[in-house]
Amino acid sequence: MSLKPTSPSQMVEATSDRSDSSPRLSVEGLVGGYGSVPVVKGMSLVAEPGTIVGLIGPNGSGKSTFVKGIIGIVKPLAGTVQLGERFLQGRRPDQNVAAGLGYLPQVADVFGNLTVSENLEIGGYLHRKVRPARKKHVLELLPILGGRLHQKAATLSGGERRLLGLGRVLMGFPTVILLDEPSAGLAPQAVKTILSYLTSLREEGISLVVVEQNVRAVLSIADRVYVMMEGQCAMEGTATEIAGDLVGLGRAFMGHARDFVGPDSARPTTPEFLLGEQSRESEIEKRGSMI
Ligand SMILES: Nc1ncnc2c1ncn2[C@@H]1O[C@H](COP(=O)(O)OP(=O)(O)OP(=O)(O)O)[C@@H](O)[C@H]1O
Ligand SMILES: [Mg+2]
Fold first, then answer.
1. Confidence (pLDDT) at 13
2. What pLDDT, on the 0 to 100 scale, is given for residue 286?
3. What are the residue ranges in the chain where pLDDT is below 50?
4. First-last CA distance in the chain
5. Residue 162, C-beta contacts closer than 8 angstroms, at least 6 positions apart
6. 16, 68, 128, 266: most buried by Cβ count inside 10 Å?
7. What is the 264 CA–ligand 2 centroid distance (Å)?
8. Which atom of ligand 1 is nearest to the CA of 181?
9. What is the DSSP annotation of 186-213?
């Protein structure tokens, strides 16, 4: 199954304003937030073509703000966002989508009052001439949506809605997709389905930056992983390296527990993913020494 358009000329037409069909995404020293005080404080990340990059970190560490800074929803105060040869920082989100970035937000990823078909067409608004062929290919890749084309998006299950959001993004011929918690709120089977679609997109040469709370899930598919803490990169490595450094992960996720002031009921606890069945007891010991 291919995500590419039916003919090379369609691909050329859809992406004629792009100089490179498999560009590298390189973010350097991004600073940004919602007022004068930045939430993201100099975060860098590289996504090589055809790889999955995981972005994890505790709640409020700035993951969503960082990806909003890349796509352009949050205007960076400093830093660069480079896709291939082109610098994207400071440009509008729609300009960055035209340049090849795709973005699946953490919430509100589809238009509930529109049908599945209409949602897909909106995603391809920049590519009207090749939109029917593209839609056919996206539906081949996400066949669950094919039988629901005339159903309102609001009536889809959580997993189907997430796949429709992904389909809408794919309609824009992205070369790099930023996904903010694609597995959030989904049942384990739906998480597996989403993960398998993400790995098949990687096989098509698309790069994916996947923000996740489900650390186990992202470690299972990512090539490289970045751990964010308080707006900066706390750890970076291959998924194997990061998965093997439970102490480092514990520090990144629990670092603030040591200085925590407040009721015990609100004290940060060791995330579930750090408490694997075999290592649960030793991790509890480590946790004791960390707090
Ligand atoms: N629209 C906003 N206006 C003001 N502050 C915001 C806004 N969105 C997020 N913040 C603040 O920015 C900080 C980082 O939030 P962000 O959503 O980027 O974190 P996150 O790592 O994605 O967290 P989570 O894992 O809970 O999704 C938080 O302190 C949050 O309260
Ligand atoms: Mg978030």
1. 55
2. 42
3. 1-8, 277-291
4. 50
5. 104, 109, 182, 186, 190, 194
6. 68
7. 25
8. 27
9. --HHHHHHHHHHHHHHHHTT-EEEEE-S
Residues near ion ligand 2 (Cβ under 5 Å):
64
Q: Note the pLDDT tens digit of each residue in 138-174.
A: 999 888 899 999 999 999 998 899 999 999 999 999 9
Closest CA to 73 of 38, 43, 34, 37: 34
Q: Which domains does the chain have, with CATH numbers?
A: 8-244 (3.40.50.300), 248-290 (no CATH)
pLDDT of the residue at 79:
98
Taking the CA of 66 as reference, the closest ligand is 1
User: Cα of 179 to ligand 1 centre, how many Å?
Assistant: 16
How many Å apart are CA 279 and CA 84, to the nearest integer?
42
Residue 239 sits at φ, ψ, to 5 deg, of -60, -35
In whole angstroms, what is the distance from residue 191 CA to residue 76 CA? 32
Q: For position 21, what pLDDT does the model report?
A: 75
Residue with tokens 């629990």: 254
Task: Return phi, psi of residue 238, to 5°.
Answer: -70, 160
Location of structure tokens 């309609």? 171
Per-residue b/e over 275-289, b at no fewer than 16 CB within 10 Å?
eeeeeeeebeebbee
Pocket-testing residue among 30, 37, 61, ligand 1, by greatest number of atoms within 8 A of Cβ? 61
The Cα–Cα gap between 244 and 271 comes to 16
Ligand 1 environment, Cβ below 6 A: 34, 39, 57, 59-65, 213
* CA gap 286, 187 in Å, rounded: 31
